Amino acid sequence: MKEYNLSDRHIISLKEEKLALSTDDLHVWYGTNEAIKGVSLDFEQNKITSLIGPSGCGKSTYLRSLNRMNDEIAGTKITGEVLYEGVDINSPQVDVYEMRKHIGMVFQKPNPFSKSIYENVTFALKQHGEKNKRVLDDIVESSLKQAALWDEVKDSLDKSALALSGGQQQRLCIARAIAMKPDILLLDEPASALDPISTGKVEETLLNLKEHYTIIIVTHNMQQAARISDYTAFFYVGHVIEYDQTSKIFTRPKIKATEDYVSGHFG
Ligand SMILES: Nc1ncnc2c1ncn2[C@@H]1O[C@H](COP(=O)(O)OP(=O)(O)OP(=O)(O)O)[C@@H](O)[C@H]1O
C-alpha cells in the first residue's frame, strides 16, 4: 500500500454568488470513528459535482450530511457548517422536513413505494397538503418528463411502480424527488445497480436536469464522473484531497493520490 502525504491538497473555491451549497470544516463522527475530517467544499448552482474515492473514505457520509440524513443514525456527531442560502442546515431553527424539500435525495438502490407510478410521484406532495387533482396531474407529467420516463409510462400511471424495470424505477425515484421542486439533488451511486443501457438513460436524465437543479453525485464509476460532471472531489480517508473542474481532475490532476486513483494505480 502506497503512503500518500495527506497535507498535499488542491481545493478550488467558487464565487459566492454562484453557490448552491457549501460546507465549512465539516466533521462527522460515528461514535468515536471520525468519518469526515474537516471538509470545506463549494458547490456551484446548475452544475453536476461528482464525489469519488476508495471504499470507506466517507463519500456517502458526506453526501448524507448535506441534507441531514445522518440524523437518522444513532451516535452521529457533526461539527462545522453546511450552508444553504446563508443558513447552517444543522441550526436548531431549521425545520428538517422543510429543508429536505429543497435538498432532495435519491439512493443507490431504487426504492419506489409499493404503490402506483402516479402515487409515487404525488405521495410527498399530498403529505405536504396538495389536494388539487389538476395540480397533481401537471406535476406528475412534468416530473416524469424531466426524469425522461414519461413516454414509457404515460399510459400506465396506475400500474404498480414495482412492475417497472430497475432503470425505470430509478428514474421514477428521480421524478419523485423532483416533484417537490428541490434546488439540489443528492444522488448516492444512483446507477450502480443498473445495466449499461439504464445507466446511460439515468446519466442523460441528470445532464438534462442540471438546467434546473444543482446535482451532487457519489459514484465509483470514473467514466461516469468524467462523462457527466462539471466538478469532481476526490475523497481519501475522510479528507478531500483534490477538488477541481472534472476535466482537470481526469487529465491534469495536481496531487499524486488523485492521479493514481483516477488512473487505476491507487494503493
Ligand atoms: N451507519 C454507520 N454507522 C457507523 N459507521 C458508519 C456508518 N456508515 C458509514 N460508517 C463508517 O464511516 C466510514 C465512511 O463510510 P462511508 O460509507 O461514508 O464511505 P464511502 O466512501 O461512501 O464508502 P463506499 O464507497 O464503500 O460506499 C467508514 O469507516 C464506515 O465504516
TrEMBL record:
Database matches in Pfam families: ABC_tran
GO BP annotations listed: phosphate ion transmembrane transport
Keyword Nucleus recorded: no
Keyword entries, A-Z: ATP-binding, Cell membrane, Membrane, Nucleotide-binding, Phosphate transport, Translocase, Transport
UniProt-listed SUPFAM superfamilies: P-loop containing nucleoside triphosphate hydrolases (SSF52540)
Listed PROSITE patterns: ABC_TRANSPORTER_1, ABC_TRANSPORTER_2
Stored PANTHER family: ABC TRANSPORTER I FAMILY MEMBER 17 (PTHR43423), PHOSPHATE IMPORT ATP-BINDING PROTEIN PSTB 2 (PTHR43423:SF10)
Protein name (Swiss-Prot/TrEMBL): Phosphate ABC transporter ATP-binding protein
UniProt GO MF annotations: ATP binding; ATP hydrolysis activity; phosphate transmembrane transporter activity
Ranges of residues in domain ABC transporter: 21-262
Native source organism of the sequence: Vagococcus elongatus
GO cellular component: membrane
Tagged with keyword Mitochondrion: no
